[in-house]
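// run 5 | inverse folding | seed 20
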């Protein structure tokens, strides 16, 4: 999983990350988000809302990583909702995540 989190850090440095509940809620509605990453540690309502957004707006969705893992990868305290705005980076993260899940 460290590869995914490391790549997420690179994605942030490239300026293709949206962090936080409200910013992602707005960005996904206008089509800026290509991948949503939501922590299982987020409130159930938050997870349900963003899962619904991913289905409605056809956005890839990953529910993995603790808020601390996401926060550490991105240089913040704890983060429950992260959006990726670049399609190629989103595709790479999904691919990396899926390959790690297969290995486990």
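// decoded
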């Amino acid at each position: 999983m460290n590869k995914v989190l490391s790549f997420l850090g690179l994605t942030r440095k490239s300026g293709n990350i949206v962090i936080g509940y409200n910013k992602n809620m707005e960005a996904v509605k206008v089509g800026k988000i290509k991948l949503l990453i939501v922590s299982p540690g987020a409130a159930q309502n938050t997870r349900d809302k963003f899962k619904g957004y991913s289905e409605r707006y056809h956005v890839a969705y990953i529910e993995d990583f603790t808020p601390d893992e996401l926060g550490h990868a991105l240089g913040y305290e704890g983060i429950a909702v992260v959006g990726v705005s670049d399609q190629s980076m989103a595709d790479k993260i999904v691919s990396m995540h899926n390959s790690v899940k297969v290995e486990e």
